[in-house]
């Protein structure tokens, strides 16, 4: 997977908007064949039309709710039937709700976990056996910088991304030597329709939002470099280091004053 992306089959969940949409366009620009999957078929058709117009590539469209075992198995089976294999799986589908835990219903928290974590697990388990059989493939999981630490009102969302990070790390060790690679891409806040649901006001006022293009570039870079973990922006690594080096200062900075 470290060479050309031309004619590679790339299945991207959540590709109707935001990071998934931009990643699909960038994969097409590199000569790959994006397979578009999301719940909003109308938006997927718009993305497919844009890809066809700009790159003369037919990107197939599949309606997919990653919460459904049946739909996941059906879509993956249809992709295998059409192309015979999947070279790259980009697990991008997800959303966030930012509120105090006590104000969130159990159903809201469970649904976030069903999409962000279990949806990713379903997709991975559906695609992985074929990759192992071919001794080739790359799984790219869109996690978050929130998969390394949680802040007030972000705990339930961060838990889903902590789960993604743990699942990815364990699976990466299992895949060692198989020819199948796994990377996580961990961005800070990204200016996408994600914030149509997630509350921007819960973020620090000076937050610098990433662009979807920056994250999509990291996704494509991962297919060539095969590094296990990508953190965006790079200064995020500094924040993580400070959190571990000065836990007392970190706690006092985030703890609410009663």
Automatic annotation (TrEMBL):
GO terms for cellular component: membrane. The keyword Oxidoreductase applies. It comes from the Bacteria. Keywords: Oxidoreductase. GO terms for molecular function: oxidoreductase activity, acting on the CH-OH group of donors, NAD or NADP as acceptor. The keyword Oxidoreductase applies. Belongs to the short-chain dehydrogenases/reductases (SDR) family. This is Short-subunit dehydrogenase. It comes from Tumebacillus permanentifrigoris.
